[in-house]
Amino acid sequence: MDILLLVSIAQSILAATWRMATPLIYTAIGEIFTERSGVINIGLEGIMLIGALSGYVVTSYTDSLFLGISSAVLSGIISGLLFSLFTVTIKANQIVVGAAFNMIGTGLTGFIYRTLYSGGSTDKLVLDTFPSIKIPLLSDIPFFGEILFQQNLMVYATVVLVPLAAFILSKTAFGLYVKAVGEHPKAADTSGINVTLIRYISTTIGATLAALGGAYLSMAHANQFVEGIATGRGFIALAVVVFGRWSPWGAMGASLLFGVFYALQLRLQAMSGNVIPYQFLQVLPYLATLIVLVSLKGRGAEPKALGKPYKA
Question: Where are the alpha helices (DSSP H) in 137-191?
Fold first, then answer.
């Protein structure tokens, strides 16, 4: 019985791992494009919140998942273009602009949510979106069926996103341009590559995927919006990029690792009752982030021009 219980616990944790890692995968893959082009965006948390609220509001008013996701994508595109305007064109300090995005995202989403939904019924606040899809036959496989083949559409989409991002960055002309701009923008400019355009596109891709990561939280994970729903995932995604060494496959692996800690702390909360304060258990993913960053000290493989505005 003890063995069966342990197997059941392991299965539930692993099944939740992919779901918990999904917003990190979206956001980290997007940030890889951004940082590979030489721009660092620490405003991912704010962009995730904006994407989460955009998708939630449109879906709650239209009952359309397509329109909800489209609105999140649009919010990401707008955020990316604004971030690029300040950091690439105006050449403002990228860290300062990112911090401003985080503050704006937190304050603006909280204000809009309270304005639109204060006093509303609880039933209207919960969305009925993105249910789990059981893949015939495969979902019935013992142990692994629940883990791999009983997820929702946005989780399954990461299976396409990661190899697609890896292919774009390593096998296409655009990917080579992104890497060139991030490593030696002057040489890239001299060879005819439009540094400004590549950085605009890369940063916008990054913000759009971060917004989708936020939309996942409100539309496929919690099925509702809560102020601060990102709960630091934007910052953890930054650590995932470093831990994954600016590689889509590495970022996916790192995201799954952090997903284990998210799933584990939830399971421990359920098992411990009131024995262990839940606040202590909630620290696990962030403690893991600190440990990872400390362990990676001195092993950076970041683009040489990362965080440096380019002046022709």
Answer: 144-148, 153-156, 158-171, 173-183, 185-190
CA distance 93 to 86: 8
Q: What are phi and psi of 152, to 5 degrees?
A: -90, 170
Burial of 46 (0-12, 13-18, 19+ CB in 10 A): buried
Please state at what angle helix 44-62 crosses helix 2-36, rounded to 10 degrees: 110
Residue 208 near residue 73 (C-beta atoms within 8 A): yes
pLDDT at 82 over 90: yes
Alpha carbons 225 and 57: distance in angstroms, whole number: 9
d(CA 270, CA 221): 18
CATH topology for the 2-295 domain:
ABC transporter involved in vitamin B12 uptake, BtuC (1.10.3470)
**Residue keyed to tokens 């503050």:** 103
Backbone angles phi, psi at 299, to 5 degrees: -115, 25
pLDDT digits over 140-158, tens only? 888 888 888 889 999 999 9
- For 85-102, write each residue's pLDDT tens digit: 999 999 999 999 999 999
Phi then psi dihedrals of residue 92, to 5 deg: -75, 160
